[in-house]
TrEMBL record:
The keyword Coiled coil applies. Keywords: Coiled coil. Residues 216-240 are annotated as: Disordered. Residues 156-201 form a coiled coil. The lineage of its organism: Eukaryota, Metazoa, Ecdysozoa, Nematoda, Chromadorea. This is J domain-containing protein.
């Protein structure tokens, strides 16, 4: 782990350990500190409770936190307090929803499984390198908790990324359907306008056709002689 992450984790856990004596400003800072975006996806992390605890404990923790960070309690830092309060409200809402609670707990199950794979790979690598593979650093409970915390955070981050991808796809599909519907509506409108104009111009077309026929007939008959009027009998010869 990098030094920056090590410092972040140590500082965060030290803050959590002293949670009972944190001031409102410190609680707000805990929830809004740089790097907290993905941490706040985990409602257990937000409310600082174990994932196996029941919802009643989550409610009690929410009440205790809300008394500290509610915007009305922090008029000099209302904007940040409002953001922090929204974060804990969302966390409690997640845990009060049975389906969401189950999914959040499954994140820990998945994280433990991922960590087990990582630890297994470390043991195999140590064995290949001719080192003692019976013990690795994650066998230390403190190191294991830290590693699990990292993997859990990644699991929640992966879930959020997947949700956003699916949401974007759904929005794109919705947009595509809307465009198709708009295009179909415009085609129907053009067809209806054409049919309406065609119907309204029916009499004009009929009149124009009649006028055309009449004019044509007159033109054809103009200057045309009667049948047989051009016949001329042969000249009579005078006989002696």
């Amino acid at each position: 782990m990098s030094d920056d992450f090590e410092h972040f984790y140590t500082d965060l856990k030290e803050t959590e350990k002293n949670d009972s004596v944190l001031t409102p400003g410190q609680q707000i800072e805990r929830l809004l500190r740089p790097g907290s975006t993905y941490l706040n996806l985990n409602p257990f992390e937000v409310l600082q409770i174990d994932p196996d605890e029941d919802v009643e404990l989550a409610k009690k923790k929410f009440k205790r936190l809300s008394l500290l960070i509610h915007p009305d309690k922090n008029p000099d830092d209302r904007e940040r307090a409002d953001k922090a309060f929204d974060i804990i409200k969302k966390a409690l809402a997640q845990l009060e929803n049975p389906d969401e609670l189950k999914k959040c707990r499954e994140m820990y199950t998945e994280a433990r499984a991922r960590l087990a794979i990582i630890m297994g790979e470390k043991r195999r690598k140590a064995k290949r390198d001719g080192k003692d593979a019976t013990t690795i650093e994650e066998d230390d409970p403190a190191v294991y908790r830290k590693a699990l915390w990292v993997v859990v955070t990644r699991c929640f981050a992966d879930r959020e990324k997947k949700r956003r991808v699916l949401e974007e796809r759904a929005n794109e599909e919705k947009k595509r359907c809307a465009e198709q519907a708009q295009e179909a509506a415009e085609k129907r409108k053009l067809a209806e306008e054409f049919a309406k104009n065609y119907e309204e111009s029916r009499d004009d077309r009929r009149g124009s056709w009649r006028d055309f026929v009449v004019k044509k007939a007159k033109k054809e008959s103009k200057g045309k002689s009667l049948r047989g009027d051009s016949f001329k009998p042969p000249r009579t010869k005078i006989t002696k």
